[in-house]
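dumping this here before i forget
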Amino acid sequence: MALAFPASAAPDRSRSRDEGAASEYVVLYNEDVSPGRAHAAVKAAGGRIVHENTDVGVATVVSRNPDFTTDAMEHRALEGVAHNRVIGEAPKGRSSTEVETATGTGALVPGRPGKDTEPLAHLQWDMKQIHATDEGSYETEPGDRRVLVGVLDTGIDGDHPDIKANFNKALSRNFTHDIPKDVDGRELDGPCEFTSCVDPVDWDDNEHGTHVASTIAAPRNGLGISGVAPNVSLVNIRVGQDSGQFYLQPTVDGLTYAAKIGVNVVNMSYFVDPWIWSCADNPADSSADRLEQRTIIAATQRALDFAHEHGVTLVAAAGNQLVDYTKPHADNASPNFPSVPGEKPHKRTVSANCLSMPTEGEHVIPVSATGPSTRKSYYSSFGDGHVAVAAPGGDKADAPDGRPDDRRGIWAAYPEHIAKLRGQLDPDGTPKVPSVVRSCKNGTCAYYQSMQGTSMAAPHAGGVAALIISRYGRPDGRSRLALDPWVVERVLRGTATATPCPSPNTVEYVWYKLTDGKWVKNTSTQTCEGRARRNGFYGEGIVDALRAVQH
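structure:
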């Protein structure tokens, strides 16, 4: 990929490589190139390495050379360059996708635990849908503590009472640092909560990672809820910012770290791309933007390959864009973060050859979302050949009138400090919004939130993958269990409940959103293609925890 310039187009070397403002880049080394050659190439282009991942040949570089990208690509030791811009966007205090925090209007109806161990089990229609219940998979296989699930997300509230027992703080790592403002001076993560701007490994200022973690492995302790695999261990591998944005370098570092410490499953409920979809040769993009997107694809895939080769099962959210990933569609939101002041998204048509990473990376299991009725959730992206399996992700509009109701979302752990910050609690701690509930036992109280998104679907599938390893894995010599990711995926797909396309297969979804104090009707027409056993809405079916461990 080294660039060749004709004499008439040779870059101007007359100005100093140190005259510009400092910028940060992610540089991808060519495979089989020695570190010494790569380092020399970076230096020759006017860069200084500040962080390096030698496992996959990716480095973070700082340079004041305004032509660093062009100069770097003249060296055959380097394969790609990308601005180290933020990946994914959400305003401070919200989740990484808009639909996930859509507020419902339905008042919660108190229920009784009955035979269930957990007092909030009556809210967990999702666990009933996949048979992760006291009478279902919990009785056969609740999970094994030797199985490690890495949550690549915004962090985990490791002190949450419905997470703490299964949280492995010693192995957890934070690969990010808080960034108060972006290059345009707009708030990004906001003021740093800790003097180092590096949050502790048991901290979550977003909510997203904590919700995902408890869906996977909230313990059966009689306090609130249970996760899919209530006995497995959770490892916080933080790669996301407080704002819900995700950088390339932390994602690469997180995946390689997971592989090296023996993590069995990683859950990736986000997209690693400021472009949402990375396109190698989109005519609407500049040559520098195309290079950046190729670099993102290649660097992420190297990290995914490394993890897969080390026995990590890779599970990811299928996306919340309401589009068929296998068909051309519009992308009006990329790049969604300015790498230089004033940079804005531009309109372009995205083909099926463009990739949303890590979801569309090789070895990854993309998961679409279902609602309480088992219909594919209105927001969930889809595509025959894109979706591997489906799982409960919530659908607050899953009703004939399309009106949102929090009871149709996914209930999982919610950090108390965020609820307080948002003013969602009365002075005595009682929730004052319908999307938050509290449960107490012996003087210990915990909070839970209703959310929706394919981000909520992926951890259900990830939890089932952890159960499969718990059931069929073998000791790996490090006091852990192991099972080939190919076997895990085969069992996950093979035991899913086949769910055919709806009839007719083109569906008009209707949902309402509160805008300026008024309920506004929204619609989307989506077509399911494929067979009963494998199709664009459900893949090979809705995951089933009980069938997976009875296989």
